[in-house]
Amino acid sequence: MIRALSTAATGMNAQQVKLDVTAHNIANASNAGFKKSRVEFEDLIYQNFHRPGSPTDQMHQRPAGLQVGLGTKVVATHTLHAQGDLAQTGNPLDVAIEGRGYFVVQLPNGDQAYTRTGSFKLDQEGRIVGNQGYALATQINVPPEATHISIGVDGTVSAAVEGSAEEVQVGQIELATFTNPDGLLSLGHNLFGETAASGQPFFGMPGENGVGILSQGMLELSNVKVVEEMVDLISGQRAYEVNTRVIRAADEMLQQTVNMR
Questions:
Q1: Does one domain contain both 90 and 216?
Q2: What sign has the CA pseudo-torsion 119, 124, 128, 131?
Q3: Judgement on whether residues 243 and 173 belong to the same structural domain of the protein
Q4: Are 68 and 125 found together in one domain?
Q5: What is the number of structural domains in the chain?
Q6: Helix 2-27 with 226-258: angle, nearest 10 deg
Q7: What is the 3-state secondary structure (H, E, C) of the chain?
Q8: How far is CA 185 from each of CA 53, 143, 260, rounded to the nearest angstrom?
Q9: The domain containing residue 251 runs over which residues?
Q10: Which of these, 38, 85, 137, 201, could form a disulfide with 104 (CB 3.0-4.6 Å)?
Q11: What are the per-10-residue average pLDDT scores of the chain (261 residues)?
C-alpha cells in the first residue's frame, strides 16, 4: 500500500506541473509572438520481482516478468515553435515573419536574443526597438524628418523624407535560424537565448536560405489554441482527481489492515 501512495503522489506532482504550463499558455493566448509549451513525461524506475527471461528451472524461462512501476515524472517542457496566425494591424512598424526565422535584438549586456514578436517602435535615436527597448542587432537608424517607413519582404527598411521624391534605404533587417529551435532558452519578454542544445544561429536576409519573409503592417499572433488548452486542462484535472482516488483507496486498505484483529 505504501508503494501505491508514493506512486500516486508522483502522478499528482506531474499533473500539477502540466496545469502550471497550461495556465501559462492560456495567460499568453493574446500575447503576439508567444510560443506555447507542452509538458512531456516518462515513467520512473521499475521494481523487478522477476525479470523477463529469468529461468524457472533448468529447462525453462519466464515468458514475461513481474515488474511494478513506481510512477511518473516530468522530463521536459517542449516549446512548440509552429507559426501563429497573422493579423493585419496597419502599423508600419509591426512586422511578421512568414517562415522559421527570428528577429535578432541586442541585450544591454551585449548578448543577442531572438524573438518572433515584431511589434516595433522607434526610440529617441531613431533606432527600431522592441517592447523592452532592445534595438535590432543590425544598425538601423530612421532619420527624424522621415514621414513614412517601408519594410520590404526582404527586410529592406526605407524612409520617405519630406521634400524628397524617393525613399532612402536606411538599413536591412536580418533574421536568424537554428538547427534545433526546441533547444532555445526562454528568457521571458518573448525572448529566447542560444544554448548548446539549440546550436549556433545561422544569420540570413529574409527570403534567403529558408529563413522566411517579412510582412509589414502584420503581427504574428500567439500559437496557443484556447480550445486545445481547455481540453488539456480538463484531462489534467481528471488525471489529478484519479490519482487522489488511488491515494484514498490505498489509505482505506491500510486502515482495514490496521483494524484487523
A1: yes
A2: negative
A3: no
A4: no
A5: 2
A6: 160
A7: CHHHHHHHHHHHHHHHHHHHHHHHHHHCCCCCCCCCEEEEEEECCEEEEECCCCECCCCCECCCCEEEECCEEEEEEEECCCCCCEEECCCCCEEEEECCCEEEEECCCCCEEEECCCECEECCCCEEECCCCCEECCCCECCCCEEEEEECCCCEEEEEECCCCCCEEEEECCEEECCCHHHCEEEECCEEECCCCCCCCEEECCCCCCCCEEEECEEECCCCCHHHHHHHHHHHHHHHHHHHHHHHHHHHHHHHHHCCC
A8: 44, 35, 55
A9: 2-81+226-258
A10: 137
A11: 85 94 95 94 87 79 83 92 93 94 94 94 92 91 88 93 81 94 93 94 91 94 95 93 91 84 66
Are 159 and 143 a contacting pair, CB within 8 Å?
yes
Does 141 share its domain with 213? yes
**Are residues 180 and 60 part of one domain?**
no
Kindly report the pTM of this predicted structure. Answer: 0.85
Per-residue cell: 126: 531613431
Q: 78: which 3 cell numbers?
A: 517542449
